[in-house]
Amino acid sequence: MKLFVFLIATFVVSLPVCAQTASLRGQVMDETGAMVPGAKVTLVGPAEAKVTTSITTSGNDGSYSIAGLTPGSYTVRADAPDLTQTQPVTIVLKAGAQTLNVRMKVASVTQQVTVQENAGPSVTTEPANNATALVLRGEDLQALSDDPDDLQSDLQALAGPSAGPEGGEIYVDGFSGGQLPSKDSIREVRINQNPFSPEFSKLGYGRVEILTKPGTDQLHGQGFFNFGDDIFNSRNPYAQEKAPFLLKEYGGTVSGSLSTRASFFLDFERREIDNGSVIDAIIAPQTPYTDVLLAPQRRLRVSPRVDYQLSQNNTLMFRYGFTRNDVQDQGIGNFNLASRGYYTLDQDHTVQITDTAVLGPNTVNETRFQFFHVEDDQASNSLAPALLVLGAFNGGGSQLGRSFDTENHYEMQNYTSLVKGMHTWKFGVRMRGETVDNTSPQNFGGTFTFGGGTGPELDANNQPVLDASGQPVMEPITSIEQYQRTLLFQQLKYSPAQIRALGGGATQFSIIAGNPYLAASQVDAGVFVGDDWRVRHNVTLSLGLRYEMQTNIHDWRDIAPRVGFAWAPGSDHITLHPKTVIRGGFGMFYSRFDISNTETAERYNGIVQQEYIIDNPKFFPNVPAIASLTGSPSTSTIQEVSATLRAPYIMQSALTVERQVVRNTTVSVTYTNSHGLHMLRSEEFNAPGPIYLMESSGLYNQNQLITNVNSRMNSNVSLFGYYTLNRAMSNTDGLSTFPGSPYTMAGEYGPAATDIRNRVFMGGSLNTKWNVRLSPFIVAQSRAPYDITIGQDIYGDTLFTARPGIPTDLSKPGLIDTSYGWLDPNPTPGEQILPRNSGRGPGLISVNMRLGKTIGFGPEREGTGAPGAVGDGHYSGFHSIFSDVPTGRRYNLTISLSARNLLNHVNEGPIIGQITSPLFGQANQVAGGYGAFAETANNRRLELQMRFTF
């Protein structure tokens, strides 16, 4: 750190500033006042200038800067996808710094696009133009899935493994949280831009920013229909028969003018899926059970947007979104039998209002407000008590009862951008509030758990086998064996004590009573200021500071400094486009303590609700009355938030070398180090009943080496990708992490859940000479870690998180032979415990591909020229924000085929880490997507898609 500060100081002190040259700075914005990143700004100057034409690219905040200019008269022109400048601007530059903001408007569907030699990726010292970033527009977006859940998965894969334990964050039009918009309403996606910006609270590596489309000045639109059927798909490898699957997605967008000052954009989407749920369980020793059931899913999404120009310098944007998800028989599949199903109805409303005001030639202010309202209604198909045979099957009811959850999320922002000389300032404040009203009768019906353990070996007559001394021969028994012995000996009318002695009997019974209703609220706020200082034409220094605070925890120390630099060595004022940039930074990033954790502590405080846990219950399968448990030898658990808990934070450092290797191709190599302190974890205290304490005592360390490649070879070929070498170690993976033993922390520091050593991604867009577009999306990663547990409560803390011991005496009874060596499910005091996350699952390979062909018809657009004509190093053709492929015609029909997991590679889901499970070390499901609509019925999925654009 001291060396880093010394280098920055050396740059600042040793670099002179030339006073005889001119510089021009400013921001590029659209007609709504929103900043336009990635716009190409071209300056054409006087003939006597050393460089008559200068080109740069606007940064993430729309800012641009060109230094080392000869004073004189210049013409300024801006070019950006889907936007156009009314006319070039002329400005007379004098020695020193001057400011000019450039306004653009949404282009009509037809526009002339000129791609010059340097129009592709290039390296600059602008903070937001880091080569590790990725900006997707137009055809590049076609590599992403149309399905909203798969779209989220694709965006997270694009962002790469986040530097830190919690993953990245997705922002929509500058707002955190909320509903992900449909792909058709997305104008642009920015990934990992300006990672040390003080504007954002979360880590920059892994951050995704989505900008939605504004209205247009003429009527345009599109409609689409996607169709999928199990006849086109491959069988799920964990099902004996092909699971049913039928997908119908349809919708569209329409955009146009409401008046001379107002425009609109309307997005509509309907999804109907009859998805197959695959059950892969063990219902008896050595007896696999598979089944497929149909789970209908329906989704409706409507989102209108209106942009209104209040005045020449003030624009108002209003956006509303409504989403309804209706899912039947959710929760079935994997270990869960059909009785575990439940019904879900989710509805949400989103209101977003943004006011953008140009306060002067150098100042822009944005005020944003978001209201996000969520209603969640769930109902169990069965009210029977739950039956959990760990690692074998889950039966009985889901124990959700009839639950209701209503949430209101408020977010208010006020950000100001100010350009003054060589400085670009940005400062502002963000406030968020949440209220929750929740009714949750979870586990009010009770749960029986069978975890396996040690029992006598039985002969053919189900009697214990005796050794030479006349004692029963003990052996490890699986959870399903324990369950089967219980049923068998109950049928034989054995007493509970006899059943227990023969290795049967439930391991644990739990039930909750009390008031199911709870209300909670939370507020957090953050203020920031940042300055991007162009110290010299080839050196930019970024300084920032952020402060955060929140309710529900006693922590007011969340100060987050940020610093970054970008240096183009060997570049002078004549070399406006450097070939190499060295970039670095340091920042602190805090995580907020989620309101759901506060809900948990308030609900399970022993007063609002009471949880009764009984080890080795004698009354299976009958559920006793709550009154009878009050005086019985049961354990009541309590969950609390530690009084010393503070917000976790990551200290991150990064150093990057960026290089433009050939025309329109950049390569960057980045080293990042992340050091996390006060990470969230849980501990158990027995005083006298178990108290689960949420605390911030965890540690996280991560080192990454990331190589990014971004190439836009020409108008037909665009490829981007990365390779990440990663090493992450920690003693926690979040609040769900308990120590393997409540008496020692030995073995807790080990591979983190994010310790995936190698990860490769490649995507892009390729348009062939037949105007057939290929959009690949390929992800591969090495093995992920998983924890190995016993499946028994051997410490009397009501938890099943104990890990096995590593025996030194292999003659000890009950040892289990595994691929990780002999393991002891009953470790003796002093025996070494297996470290956390010692297991490694298989790797993952997913090749997704979209193949599309666009057919144009109707009248030819004026000014399009010959589509695809190439000459003199320029490309001219029709491009539309609604069209997949240019054709130059008024109407376009695109027919495409989309494939998920094209190679039909079996990507195994979570590995079962319980050594008493008959499926230990295996998976019983494929790796799935996100949310309730994850479509994993088939291993390879094909969709036929049709889109009409006008």
| Helix-strand category | mainly beta
Q: Segments where pLDDT lies below 50 for 5+ residues?
A: 1-19, 108-119, 863-885
Average pLDDT confidence is 85
* Radius of gyration over all CA atoms, rounded: 31 Å
Shape: elongated
Major β-sheet annotation: 22 strands, antiparallel, barrel
N- and C-termini, Cα separation? 56 Å
Classify the helix fraction into a percent range.
under 10%
What percentage of amino acids are in beta strands? over 45%
How many H/I helical runs?
Answer: 6
Number of strands: 52
List strands and helices in order, with pairings.
Layout: H1 2-14, E1 22-29, E2 40-44, E3 53-57, E4 63-69, E5 72-79, E6 83-84, E7 89-93, E8 96-99, E9 102-103, E10 105-106, E11 134-136, H2 148-159, E12 170-172, E13 175-176, E14 186-191, E15 208-212, E16 220-229, E17 245-257, E18 262-284, E19 287-311, E20 314-330, E21 342-360, E22 363-380, E23 386-389, E24 393-395, E25 402-420, E26 423-439, E27 447-450, E28 453-456, E29 474-477, H3 479-491, H4 496-501, E30 508-514, E31 517-536, E32 539-550, E33 558-567, E34 580-590, H5 595-603, E35 609-615, H6 626-630, E36 635-641, E37 649-662, E38 665-686, E39 690-714, E40 717-730, E41 750-751, E42 758-767, E43 772-781, E44 785-786, E45 816-818, E46 821-823, E47 839-840, E48 844-860, E49 869-871, E50 874-876, E51 889-900, E52 941-949
Parallel strand pairs: 1-8, 1-9, 12-15, 23-27, 36-39
Antiparallel strand pairs: 1-4, 2-3, 2-5, 5-7, 6-10, 11-14, 12-13, 14-15, 16-17, 16-52, 17-18, 18-19, 19-20, 20-21, 21-22, 22-25, 23-24, 25-26, 26-31, 27-30, 28-29, 30-35, 31-32, 32-33, 33-34, 34-37, 35-36, 37-38, 38-39, 39-40, 40-41, 40-42, 42-43, 43-48, 44-47, 45-46, 48-51, 49-50, 51-52
